[in-house]
Amino acid sequence: MTKMSGWKKPDSMSIVFILLGAIMLLFIFAPPLKTVFSSSPGTLWNTLLEEDVYSSVLLTIFAALTATLIGLFLGVPLAYVLARHQFRGKRFVEAIIDVPIVIPHSAAGVALLFVFGSNFLFGKILNGIGIGFFRSFTGVVIAMMFVSVPFLIDAAKEGFKAVDVRLEKVARTLGASAWKSFFRISLPLAWRSIFSGSVLMWARGLSEFGAIIIIAYSASFLGWSPKVLPVLVANRFDFGLDYAGPVAAIAILISIITFIVLRSIAYRGEKA
Amino acid sequence: MISIKNLKVNLGDFFLQNINLDIEPGEYFIVLGPTGAGKTVLLEAIAGLYPVLEGEVWIGDREITDLSPEKREIGIVYQDQALFPHLSVEKNIAFGLKMRKCPKNEAKAKIDAIVEVVGISHLLKRSPATLSGGEKQKVALARALVTEPKVLLLDEPLSALDPETRERMQRELREIHSRVELSVIHVTHDFEEAIALGHRVAVLNDGCIAQIGTPEEFLRRPSSEFVARFALTRNILSGRVTGIENGCTLIDIGGTKLRATTEANGEVRLSLRPEDIFISKEPLQSTARNCFLGVVSDIADRGSVIYVTVNLPPDFVCIITRQAFDELQLGKGAEVWITFKASAIHVF
């Protein structure tokens, strides 16, 4: 049986660091907490029942989810290649992946228009198969994906790096093809990092404003023309804080609850 | 039989090249070499896990050089066992059978048989994280053996174990090998492990095989100074052949004239194993042709044995048991006689 260690008086450095850390935590936590508690539950519920609000919630959640699923499909293979192979220009490729994080997101929206706009290559291809980009669900998904996929790729890459390559080698000698070795060994062992990266990507996509306002101020979605939640909040803010507050609170609640649930799934059974 | 012909592999800083090995069915073959010699890469090249620049790998009359790893029928066990951490012991062992689409009943019979041979029936439901080093090693062995490979590759399988477990695992490896009778290539940097387990040994140096032979040949007839040093031969000396006397070649080493059975001439390098030298307080009456008086210049305690350096000059390192050391009451500066046979001297 482990004997509990007695209380130990913290040293001066620990006390200072804890105080500074507490200020930082308060700085992070106070604004969303205040926003949520500024509106009564009844106000929040009534706001959620407004068509432009619930359609906005649905658009934002589904677009972020779609972006994450596409990010998984295209990003995980890239992360695996980067984790397992050494090649000339690898650092350049890794830098390119992080470009969306460093450029202003409104500029990212303009940049995406230059590629996916109807007068440009990918835009023409999309139009050719009947998929619109400007002011469309597709546009929202692409904007969200562009700004948030680096989080998924970087997390997945670190996850694959943490899997001992010899496990894959042993699997190969035991009769597994490269595909089976990936799906039976590498992927299950890296899933926690991939899932965690997906949650981050989804959350980042959910909160995207700059790129989306350029591409899709409002988007056609399931017969509505909703704005994504960050745009809706900004739009309502034009009419005052009281009008924007409940929508902002809903956005915060959805983000935080989903984030907490998904993270707890990802880290289930793992010590902090 | 597994044959490796003129294998060449790029190791980045240097090449592993001119690797030629013929390993008989059922043979326990050791590849011995210092850290960084390319031993693991050699195994991975044989298993198809590392690209080969030149050369061929054959199992029996089938060339497997260009086959993917899963088609080679070669098992591998790494130093850190590389057990799949997300699978139970049973699922680890069953993995290879599942990949090869072995019917369930047959798979169960095979798993039962191999866990019996390896002695891990009680561990099947455990997670790899809960196993000791020795248990992990046995699970890794069972996992590799259950698919009935033609060749088993062992990459320093005992290095990560504590001395007691390592000794026990050496015995168990010998026993398991005698039961399953397949060709084994075991790489290690530990000469004593090589002597304890190998039918034959190959020493790797500078990307090439320096010598292939039985453990006895390594002990008695190392082909080079490198091999002699690797074989823990402590006495490697330079001398000059000065003549022949009573059928023995006289070799002058710094004023001391050794009697050896060699036909070499001129300047020579020679080796003499510490265990071939007998230390006594009085000159020994024996047929040994070399008997010299010297002074103890150093004593290195290794627990069960003690290395005693006797200066004639030059220095000769001798090995004696603790009991003999106590009986002789040796100390630095003590005068002792050292005696060894002419045949104990090996000239490169």
What class, by secondary structure content of chain A? mainly alpha
| C-alpha geometry of chain A | globular
Give the total of beta strands of chain B.
20
Name the CATH class of the largest domain in chain B: Alpha Beta
CATH superfamily of the largest domain in chain B: P-loop containing nucleotide triphosphate hydrolases
Number of helices of chain B: 9
Short note summarizing the structure:
Chain A is built from 13 helices and no strands.
Notes on the structure:
The complex is a heterodimer of chains A (272) and B (348). Chain A has 272 residues and is mainly α. Chain A has one domain: MetI-like (MetI-like fold). In chain A, 75% of the residues lie in helices and 0% in strands. Chain A has helices at 12-38, 41-48, 51-84, 90-97, 99-102, 105-116, 121-128, 137-161, 165-173, 178-206, 210-215, 229-237, 241-266. In chain A, helix 8 (137-161) crosses helix 10 and helix 10 packs antiparallel against helix 13 (241-266). The radius of gyration of chain A is 22 Å and the shape is globular. With 348 residues, chain B is α+β, with helices and mostly antiparallel strands. Chain B has two domains: 2-229, P-loop containing nucleotide triphosphate hydrolases (Rossmann fold, 3-Layer(aba) Sandwich), CATH 3.40.50.300; 234-347, OB fold (Dihydrolipoamide Acetyltransferase, E2P), CATH 2.40.50. Chain B has helices spanning 39-47, 89-99, 104-118, 133-145, 163-180, 191-197, 215-220, 225-230, 322-328, and strands at 2-10, 15-23, 28-32, 54-59, 62-63, 74-77, 151-155, 183-188, 200-205, 208-213, 235-245, 248-253, 256-260, 267-272, 278-280, 290-301, 305-311, 315-321, 335-340, 346-347. Chain B has a six-stranded mixed β-sheet, with helices on both faces. A five-stranded antiparallel β-sheet of chain B has the order 13-12-11-14-20. In chain B, helix 3 (104-118) packs across helix 4 (133-145). The model of chain B has no long low-confidence stretch (mean pLDDT 91).
